[in-house]
Every structure is written in C-alpha cells, then in structure tokens.
Amino acid sequence: MKIDILVMAIFAALLMQGCATTISQEAVSVKLVGDVVLSKGAHEVVPPPDTNATLPAECKLIGEVKGKDYYLFLSPTLGFARAKDAERLIAGAKNDLRNNAARMGANVVYVLSVETWATGTNVFITGSAYKCP
C-alpha cells in the first residue's frame, strides 16, 4: 500500500514537470535581438534599446523560427504559474528558439512575439532567423 502511494506520488511529480529545454552547443552563439520578459504578470517582447537599429545589409533572412517551453499538465503550484515558474519557462522557450535557429543555420534571431496560456504554464516565442557575417 505504501509503495503504491509512493509510486503514484512520483508519477504525479513527473507529470507536473515541464519539458525544460537546454541549449545545444551549436546554439550558444545564436544572438537574440530583443528580449522576452515578465512584466506585471504578463509576458512581453522588449525591443532592442535602439529601436531604429537594423541588421547589417549582409544578413540574409532564413525564415521564421519558433521556440516553446511548457509544463506538461500543471505548474508545480498546481494552477497558475508563479513568477519564478514563468521565468524558467521564458528561459526554456528562448533556448528552444536558439536551438531551432541554429538547426536552420541562423546565428541571429530578431524576437517578434510571445504568446502564453492564461495559466502561464506555456510560453511560445516567434522570431525571424538570420544568417549574418
């Protein structure tokens, strides 16, 4: 009986864990232009400090790239994600974005948008992937 409860508790804990995305060796050098932050309980894209900044003319647009991170079912708080949960999800989605960009051959990603579920348990980031000299 005690073993059944322990097995069920371990299984439940695993279900609540997110798919923590780590960054690949190839993606370490992928630069993000713009950022995603948690502001007043919502995720938002922060443009680069110089909003008039453009990528060098030699940069070639490769295409759209997406990154995501999420909790499989619920956040560890069993409902709405806390700020530290959201920060982990943002970091994981950025890593996924950079990993996907590196697979495409890009070395720069211009962050365009961020979407989240109302519970804050899912983060999706979209950007434009570029290959720059």
Can you walk me through this structure?
- By secondary structure, this protein is α+β, with helices and mostly antiparallel strands.
- It has one domain (2-131): Translation Initiation Factor IF3.
- 28% of the residues lie in helices and 32% in strands.
- Mean pLDDT is 75; it is low at 6-18.
List the helices and strands and how they pair.
Blueprint: H1 2-16, E1 31-33, E2 35-39, E3 42-46, E4 60-70, H2 83-104, E5 108-116, E6 122-131
Parallel strand pairs: 1-5
Antiparallel strand pairs: 2-3, 4-6, 5-6
Characterize this entry briefly:
This protein has 133 residues and is an alpha+beta fold. Helix content is 28%, strand content 32%. It has a single domain (2-131), classed as Hypothetical protein apc22750. Chain B (Translation Initiation Factor IF3).
Which features characterize this protein?
133 residues, Translation Initiation Factor IF3, 2 helices, globular
Give the biggest sheet: 4 strands, mixed
SSE succession: HEEEEHEE
Radius of gyration, taken over Cα atoms and rounded to an integer in Å: 17 Å
Query: What is the count of structural domains?
Result: 1
Beta fraction of the residues? 25-35%
Which structural class do you get from the secondary structure elements?
alpha+beta
The share of residues in helices is 25-40%
CATH domain topology: Translation Initiation Factor IF3
The overall pLDDT average reads 75
Q: Count of helices? A: 2
User: Number of DSSP strands?
Assistant: 6
Q: Strand arrangement, largest sheet?
A: 1-5-6-4
Spans of 5+ residues with little confidence (pLDDT < 50)?
6-18
Q: Class, according to the CATH hierarchy?
A: Alpha Beta
CATH architecture: 2-Layer Sandwich
**Termini, distance in Å?**
63 Å
